[in-house]
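Entry 14. Structure prediction run on the chain below.
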Amino acid sequence: MKIHRIISKFLAASALLVSGALFAQVPDQSTPPDVLIKMVVTEVMAMVKADPDIQKGNIPKVVDLVEKKIVPYTDMRRTTEMAMGPNWKKATPEQQTQLTSEFKNLLIRTYSGALSQLRDQTVQFKALRAAPDDKEVVVKTVVLGRGDPVPLDYRLEKTATGWKVYDMNIMGVWLVEAYRNQFSNQISQNGIEGLVKFLQDRNKQLATAKPAN
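Output returned:
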C-alpha cells in the first residue's frame, strides 16, 4: 500500500470519530487521556457539522480548526523525532525545528480532505487499561460506519502540560512507522535538507489543491 493511501486512511478514520457524550469543559492538565480524546473529538465534530465550508474542504478554515482544537493536544516534535528515527540526531537544531513545522503542516493539510467526509460514523471507546502512575498510554477505539469496523488507537504521553497525542494506529499500522521508511529514503538520497524540501514541496501542492467536493 502506498504511503499516501495509508496516511489517508489514518486521517480519514481519525476525523470520522464521533463521541456519544458532550463535554462543556476544556481539557486541562488533570484531564485523563481517554476523556481528553472524547472531549477534543466532540468539539471538532460539532464545529465541522456546523460549518458547510469545512465540509466542502475549505483549507484555510480546516487549518484554523486543527491548529486551534487539535494541535494543542499533540506533541508534534516527538512525532517527528520518532518518524526520523536515528536521523533525528543528525539534523541541526534549526533543521529539527523546520522538520517539525513542515511535518505538522503536512498532517494538517491532509486533514482537510478527511474532515470534509464527516457523515454518520460513530465511535466505540474501549476501557482504558492503565495504572495511575503510567506516563504513556494507548486509548483504543473502534470507528463504526457503513463498512467494516475500523480499529483506531491513540498513543499519548503525560507531559508537564497534560496528556499529548504523539502517534496513531489504524488496523495494526502506526502513523510514525508509515512515514519512517519514506523519511529514511529521502534522507539517504538527498540528505536532511532534501527531506525538508520534500515536505515543503508537498505542503505547497496541498495548499494549492482544489477541494474534492
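The beta strands are 122-125, 136-144, 150-159, 162-170, 173-174.
Filed with the rest of this week's runs.
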